[in-house]
TrEMBL record:
Protein name: NitT/TauT family transport system ATP-binding protein
One Gene Ontology term of the molecular function aspect: ATP binding
Domain ABC transporter: 8-241
Record function comment: Involved in beta-(1-->2)glucan export. Transmembrane domains (TMD) form a pore in the inner membrane and the ATP-binding domain (NBD) is responsible for energy generation.
Keyword entries, A-Z: ATP-binding, Nucleotide-binding, Transport
Family the entry assigns: Belongs to the ABC transporter superfamily.
Classification lineage: Bacteria, Pseudomonadati, Pseudomonadota, Alphaproteobacteria, Hyphomicrobiales
Amino acid sequence: MAARQSVIRFADVGQTFLGADGKRVDALDGLSFEIDRHEFVAVLGPSGCGKSTLLRLIAGLIHPTSGSVEIFGMPVVEPRDEIGIVFQRPTLLPWFDVLGNVTFPMRHKYGFVSDVERTRARELLELVGLGGFDTRRPEELSGGMQQRVAIARALLLDPDILLMDEPFSALDALTRDEMSFELLRIWTERPKTVLFITHSIPEALLLADRIIVMTGRPGRVREVLDVPLARPRSMKTLSEPAFHELASHIRGRLFSRPVAA
Ligand SMILES: Nc1ncnc2c1ncn2[C@@H]1O[C@H](COP(=O)(O)OP(=O)(O)OP(=O)(O)O)[C@@H](O)[C@H]1O
């Protein structure tokens, strides 16, 4: 069996912000966990518990007030190419066509896009099911299609780590299920370490190897749960008894208060 390799490591991380009213907001407190290479980990927690903050820490967009955040054993000091990010909204640039949007990270980083990268971008568009859509404008695409473009863009620099912040929450329920299965297919074809933030217990169970369940603010780890559901997962997975047992367990954890130590 291959040795486990920790890719993301949070050690006793605390994050405090100063609100607009000058009051201190403790967003995270004593947060510790590790994520292994090519693991798919979902993060579930009540609104405002610091899930996006956790993602921004990994992305190097903010720095922890206390504790340490490491990627591949090195503290995160700035945004890195090893990380691709997909947000809730696709945030496509309306003045670029689909290909221009997917290749944007290259243009932003190097000031130009090579033919090799254009070819790679077209391959990624095939991968996300948008082959032949290169010259379309974002406004011509549905929400699900735009989010596929955002996923292709996040994969352009071939990141080891994919951070996804509620990427499907703005989509209708059917498209959301479809996108979940698409993401699993992409992850199988191009293994990545994925951290996926969601409010949806079924979505977390369908996608993840492990689920980090957080407490309310300040966010801490309430439980890290293995998801032993067989892969490949399909619509059938949703009706497995184990799926329902896990969902009800998580629901109980999310809606119970922590017991004082
Ligand atoms: N830059 C900031 N300045 C001040 N407060 C902030 C800042 N960023 C986040 N916060 C606060 O930190 C807390 C955690 O925010 P965060 O967005 O990480 O939560 P979340 O779990 O992602 O929320 P949701 O599930 O509603 O998206 C919230 O109370 C938020 O208001």
